[in-house]
Design a protein that fits this description.
This protein is of the alpha/beta class. Strands 10, 11, 12, 13, 14, 15, 16, 17, 18, 19 and 20 form an 11-stranded mixed sheet that branches. The two termini are 21 Å apart.
C-alpha cells in the first residue's frame, strides 16, 4: 500500500530535509510526489539543466525507505519562457496575452511551448530513469485547472485543422452544425472562428470547440507519455485528475495512463455526508476500470486568499477510508508542510507553518499504519457493482451550452451542471441504500450489470439507444429521465417524438414538455404501487403511458392526463422513466428501492443516515467498509460473527461507530 505526502524540498532549507524524511518514515509514509512545479529550478535558463538539488532530496528520502513519483513540471512555466517567448502565453478573446505569474498560463498549440515541454520532460526522464527510488511519473498537474483556454491565431488554425480531420468535407460540417440556420453556411475552412460566446454561438460549433480543447490536453499529455515510456519503461505514469471536473473528457485522458489519480478536497463548509467525494471516486475508478490513487487529499484548512475550516478530529482518517473503500490503492496528502510563501500559504498541510508534527500528522500516521496492516487483505480487491451509471462528458458539455430548463435557462451562470445534478439525485439514493455503483462510459459494455441508470443522456446516438433497448430486452433494468435522447452526437435535435429510439424499452410517448417556472412546483401523487405525495420542480415531461404503467402523476388540472413516473416490462427486463426533477429526496430513495427490487439487488447492510457502506472484493475476500460522516456516534446493523479488522474484534448484530469513525468488516 502506497501512502505519503506531496513534498516540496525546494521550499525549505536543505538542513531540514533529513528531519522531514525521518518524520515521514516514523509516520509510516513510503511515497512522495515531487517537482511538479520545479521547472525553473531544474532548467534555470533554456537548455541548461540542474538536477543536483533533486538528486540530493531523493537520496535523503531513499535512505528512509521512501519512493517518489516525479511530476513533469509543465503546468507552470519559468519566467524566462514568458519573457523570451511571449507567444507561449494564453491569449484572451480581446487579443491580449495574459500576464505571466499564474499556473496553467500556457497556450497548448504553441510550437515553442510544445518544444520546451518536450525538452524538460526528456531531460528529466533521461536523468532519473535509473534513480532507485523513482517509481513513476505524474504528467503535468491538473489539466484544465484554472481554465487556460486560448483564443490565439494558432489555436484558431488548430481548431480548423481538427475540424477538417474530423469531418473531411465542409458539406459534412455544415450538415452537422445545421449552418442553414441564420444563413451561417461555411464555404472555406479559414472562415471558421473560435466560438467564444456560449450563450449565442451555434451549439454544434460550441460542442466541437469543447471537444477540440479536450483533445488538445490529451494530445499534449501524449507527447509526454511517449517520452517517459521510451526512457523509463519500468516506471508507472499517472495524472492527477480532479474528480467531477467536466471540462475535459477524462476517458480520453486516462487512455495513455497506467492508472488514474485524482485530487480529493471534500473538507469545505459544515461537515456533511460526502456524497460528491464518493461519486468522484467511482468516476475515477470507471475511467480505466481499475483502482486509482489519491494524489492530493485534504490535510487541513484550505484556501488561497482566505482559509476554510479545519479538519475535525477523526476527519482526515474518515476522508481517507472513504477513498480506500471505493478503490484507492495509493493515497497522498497535500501537503507535507504548510508553505510560508506564495498563493497557497493558506492551503495547509499535515504540518503547519511551524513544521511541528501535531494532531493532523498523528492522525495521518495512524491511518498509514492501519493501511499497512490491511495491505495484504486489500491486495487484489476492488469494487464490483451490479449497478452502472452512464457518465457522458459530451452530454454534460451540451447541457452547459443549452441547459434548456427552469433555473438553468440563463446559461452557464449557475451552481451546477444539470447533468451532474441529475446523476447525483440517483447516485445519492444508491449511497443511502448502501449499494455500490460503477460509473461507465456510453461506449462501455453493459454485460454483467443488472441495472443501468442513464440520467439526462442529452446526446443519444441511435447505436447507443439500440444497445440500451437490447440490455432491457435481455433482462436488464434501465432507469432514465427527462432531457434524455433529445439530440444526436452533433447537437442537432432528433426529428422524432421523445423518447425516440428508447420508446420500445420505455413504452411511453412525450409529445410536449415544459419548464416549471412556478417556484412552488407542481404537486404530484403516486399510485398504490408507488405511494406518496411529491413536488415536481424545474421541468416536466407530459408523458403518455402508451404501454407502460403510470406509477406517479401530476395534480394540476392541465397535467392530470400525464404521468411523471412510469415502468414498462420489455422482453425479460424493465424500463423506468422519470419525467421531472422531484424536490424530495425521499422520492429517489423510494424509486431506487423499487428499481433494486426489480433487479433483485440486495445491499450488504442497510446503513443509517450519514453512514456510508461500500464493499471491496476479490481473491476470495469481501471487505465491508463503514464510514460515519456525522458528528454523532452511530450504530449499524451488520452480520454477526465477522471480524472487524481495525479492532480485531468479532461483530455482534450491531456495530458502533464514533463520530467520523470507520470500520472494516471481513464478510468472507
Amino acid at each position: 500500500m502506497h501512502v505519503g505526502v506531496d513534498y516540496y524540498p525546494e521550499h525549505w532549507p536543505e538542513s531540514r530535509w533529513k528531519t522531514d524524511a525521518r518524520l515521514m518514515r516514523r509516520a509510516g509514509f513510503n511515497v512522495v510526489r515531487l517537482a511538479e512545479f520545479g521547472w525553473s529550478k531544474m532548467e534555470p535558463e533554456e537548455g541548461r539543466f540542474d538536477f543536483a538539488w533533486l538528486d540530493r532530496a531523493l537520496d535523503v528520502l531513499r535512505r528512509q525507505g521512501i519512493d517518489a513519483l516525479l511530476g513533469t513540471p509543465t503546468a507552470s512555466m519559468p519566467a524566462w519562457v514568458a519573457h523570451q517567448y511571449p507567444e507561449t502565453l494564453v491569449q484572451e478573446t480581446s487579443g491580449r496575452r495574459i500576464t505571466w505569474g499564474m499556473r496553467k498560463d500556457n497556450c497548448f498549440t504553441s510550437p515553442i511551448y510544445r518544444r520546451l515541454s518536450r525538452g524538460i520532460t526528456r531531460a528529466m526522464a533521461d536523468h532519473f530513469r535509473h534513480t532507485p527510488n523513482v517509481i513513476g511519473w505524474q504528467t503535468d498537474n491538473e489539466f484544465g485547472c484554472q481554465g487556460n483556454i486560448c483564443y490565439c491565431p494558432s489555436c484558431r488554425a488548430g481548431f480548423q485543422a481538427w475540424l477538417r480531420r474530423h469531418y473531411g468535407t465542409l458539406d459534412a460540417l455544415n450538415r452537422a452544425w445545421g449552418t442553414h440556420f441564420w444563413g451561417h453556411t461555411i464555404s472555406a475552412w479559414e472562415q471558421i472562428p473560435i466560438p467564444d460566446r456560449i450563450g449565442d454561438h451555434n451549439p454544434g460549433a460550441l460542442l466541437d470547440w469543447k471537444r477540440f480543447v479536450s483533445w488538445l490536453n490529451v494530445d499534449f499529455q501524449r507527447e509526454q507519455t511517449a517520452i517517459l515510456r521510451a526512457a523509463c519503461p519500468t516506471h508507472v505514469i499517472t495524472h492527477n485528475c480532479m474528480g467531477l471536473f467536466k471540462e475535459l473528457n477524462y476517458y480520453d485522458l486516462a487512455a495513455d495512463l497506467d492508472f488514474v489519480s485524482w485530487d480529493n478536497y471534500p473538507v469545505f463548509g459544515v461537515p456533511q455526508t460526502r456524497y460528491g467525494a464518493s461519486l468522484a471516486a467511482d468516476v475515477m475508478r470507471g475511467l480505466k476500470k481499475r483502482n486509482f490513487w489519491i494524489m492530493e487529499q485534504s490535510a487541513g484548512p484550505a484556501g488561497w486568499g482566505s482559509f476554510g475550516r479545519n479538519t475535525r478530529p477523526g476527519e482526515i482518517r474518515s476522508v481517507s477510508y472513504q477513498q480506500l473503500a471505493h478503490g484507492a490503492d495509493g493515497q497522498i496528502w497535500f501537503r507535507w508542510r504548510s508553505c510560508t510563501a506564495g498563493r497557497e500559504q493558506y492551503w495547509h498541510g499535515l504540518l503547519g507553518h511551524d513544521g511541528r508534527p501535531l494532531r493532523r500528522y498523528r492522525e495521518a500516521a495512524r491511518t498509514a499504519r492501519e493501511y499497512h496492516r490491511l495491505a495484504k487483505l486489500l491486495a487484489g480487491t476492488t469494487v464490483k457493482a451490479e449497478v452502472a451509471i452512464l457518465y457522458d462528458y459530451e452530454s454534460l458539455w451540451a447541457l452547459d451550452i443549452q441547459p434548456a430548463y427552469a433555473e438553468a435557462k440563463f446559461g452557464p451562470h449557475r451552481a451546477e451542471n444539470l447533468g451532474h445534478a441529475a446523476i447525483k439525485r440517483y447516485y445519492n439514493a444508491l449511497f443511502r441504500a448502501g449499494v455500490n455503483a460503477d460509473i461507465v462510459s456510453p461506449g462501455d459494455a453493459l454485460d454483467g450489470y443488472k441495472v443501468v441508470i442513464a440520467p439526462h443522456l442529452y446526446l443519444l446516438p441511435d447505436a447507443l439507444a439500440a444497445r440500451l433497448c437490447a440490455f432491457v430486452k435481455r433482462g436488464g433494468v434501465l432507469l432514465t429521465d427527462c432531457r434524455t435522447a433529445v439530440k444526436d452526437a452533433t447537437s442537432l435535435c432528433h426529428a422524432r417524438t421523445l423518447p425516440g429510439k428508447l420508446a420500445p424499452a420505455l413504452g411511453i410517448e412525450i409529445q410536449e414538455y415544459e419548464s416549471i417556472e412556478d417556484p412552488s412546483g407542481y404537486a404530484a401523487t403516486g399510485t398504490e404501487a408507488f405511494p406518496g405525495t411529491y413536488t415536481a420542480v424545474q421541468v416536466a415531461d407530459w408523458i403518455l403511458a402508451r404501454r407502460a404503467t403510470a406509477l406517479a402523476g401530476y395534480t394540476p388540472w392541465h397535467m392530470r392526463a400525464y404521468a411523471l413516473l412510469t415502468r414498462h416490462a420489455f422482453g425479460k427486463g424493465a424500463g423506468w422513466y422519470c419525467g421531472a426533477v422531484v424536490k424530495e429526496p425521499a422520492f429517489y430513495d423510494q424509486l431506487m428501492a423499487a428499481v433494486l427490487h426489480d433487479a433483485r439487488i440486495k445491499p450488504a447492510v442497510h446503513p443509517p443516515e450519514g453512514v456510508e457502506a461500500s464493499v471491496r472484493e476479490g481473491q476470495g475476500r469481501r471487505l465491508l467498509f463503514l464510514i460515519n460522516h456525522t458528528e454523532d456516534a452511530q450504530r449499524v446493523t451488520v452480520p454477526a460473527g465477522k471480524r472487524e479488522l481495525l479492532s480485531g474484534k468479532r461483530t455482534t448484530t450491531t456495530l458502533a461507530l464514533a463520530r467520523h469513525g470507520v470500520a472494516v468488516v471481513r464478510l468472507s
